[in-house]
Design goal:
- There is one protein chain.
- This protein is of the alpha/beta class and about 350 residues long.
- It has helices spanning about 40-45, 95-100, 140-145, 145-160, 175-185, 200-205, 220-230, 245-255, 275-280, 295-305, 320-330, and strands spanning about 1-10, 10-15, 25-35, 50, 50-55, 65-70, 85, 90, 110, 125-130, 130-135, 165-170, 190-195, 210-215, 235-240, 255-260, 285, 310-315, 335-340.
- The chain contains eleven helices and 19 strands.
- A hairpin with a 2-residue loop joins strand 1 and strand 2.
- The longest helix has 14 residues, at about 145-160.
- The mean pLDDT is about 95.
- The structure holds zinc ion (2 copies).
Length: about 350
């Protein structure tokens, strides 16, 4: 089978490797669509991402969907021929975090495309059956690949503890920001302020339900939010840009006693004023992947209440994966989510 293997930064090669076999409790998935995540781009350009470093040749990709083509013994939730979304992290099921239901924090998780575990930019992949979810005929494989970043957005909303009727601000209108906006709206946000310097992304945020869009280069975000909320600030901020300035603005625009959920990854140490956190009793909460939200994410996408299709701007076959990465890196043709089809 064909696979895209990353050897070094910018050196990705299509090679033939043996097709894996499903063991006990596992399924073999013919991968049909894989979204390129910001983390894949970090690995592709630098060979690392947050704590992870690529030391051996690696197959990237974790936002994936496909078709079940074989099942191992002990599998009864899916069968051959099922169209599925794959939750790409398989936790140990035994540790403290797994036992308390926060399996995204499992230290022994096997996660697609996080070195040294191979990911989904290949024709066939093995998945743990209990982390494979049927999508039926109601969504395309491309849309199903976006269930993964939607799960991140839903985890962010869950972590925020946001109450219905809240006003939320979302910094960064990349795929995760756009999906967080939609997840917050279905969870009862009264209005969303979307902040992004790239116009086409902000416009898409508006189309997907944001009430206000702000360009942080042209407009003073802190001033804007203050005026809009009569000086109070927003209940919840979702920081999905990973920009140090955005984090500082987040601390300023959140109301007293509000919550800042940090989703975006900073590439460096950042500075901020901790007095703001203390004076306003701000809760700052991190989001690491997701736990127990995949099924709900699929239902929301199937119901049409969350829209995935408008985010898909480019689709490439596996052979052209370099072009797919370059499309994102060089911002060719206003990319939002770029999909690779093995
Ligand atoms: Zn990702
Ligand atoms: Zn565990």
């Amino acid at each position: 089978m064909k696979a895209a293997i990353l050897y070094a930064p910018y050196d990705i090669r299509i090679e033939d490797i043996p097709r894996p076999e499903a063991g006990y409790g596992e399924v073999l998935v013919r991968i049909r669509a894989v979204g390129i995540c910001g983390s894949d781009v970090h690995f592709y350009t630098t060979g690392k991402c947050s704590g992870f470093v690529v030391k051996e040749p690696l197959i990237l990709g974790h936002e994936c969907s496909g078709e079940v083509v074989d099942v191992g013994d002990g599998v009864d939730n899916v069968k051959v021929g099922d169209r599925v979304a794959v939750e790409p992290g398989f936790p140990c099921g035994r540790c403290y975090y797994c036992r308390i239901g926060r399996y995204n924090l499992c230290p022994d998780v096997i996660f697609y495309g996080a070195p040294p575990i191979h990911g989904a930019f290949r024709e066939y992949s093995i998945a743990k059956a209990s982390f494979v979810y049927r999508i039926g005929g109601g969504m395309s494989f491309e849309e199903a690949a976006l269930i993964e970043p939607l799960a991140v957005g839903m985890q962010a909303v869950k972590r925020s503890g946001m109450e219905s009727g809240s006003i939320a601000a979302v910094f960064g209108c990349g795929p995760v920001g756009l999906l967080t906006i939609q997840a917050a709206l279905v969870s009862g946000a009264a209005s969303i302020i979307a902040i992004d310097p790239v116009d086409y992304r902000a416009k898409l945020a508006e189309e997907l339900g944001a009430s206000y869009i702000v360009n942080p280069i042209e407009t003073d975000v802190v001033d804007y939010v203050r005026k809009l909320t009569n000086g109070m600030g927003v209940d919840v901020v979702f920081e999905a840009s990973g920009n140090p300035k955005a984090f500082n603005d987040a601390l300023k625009v959140v109301r007293r006693g509000g919550v800042v959920v940090q989703i975006g990854m900073f590439g460096e140490y950042i500075t901020f004023d901790p007095a703001l956190i203390i004076d306003k009793e701000v809760d700052i909460r991190g989001v690491f992947r997701y736990a127990n939200v995949y099924e709900q994410a699929i239902r929301l996408a199937l119901s049409g209440r969350i829209k995935l299709k408008p985010l898909i701007t480019h689709i490439f076959p596996l052979d052209r994966i370099k072009e797919a990465f370059d499309t994102i890196i060089e911002r060719r043709g206003n990319p939002v989510k770029v999909i690779v089809k093995p």
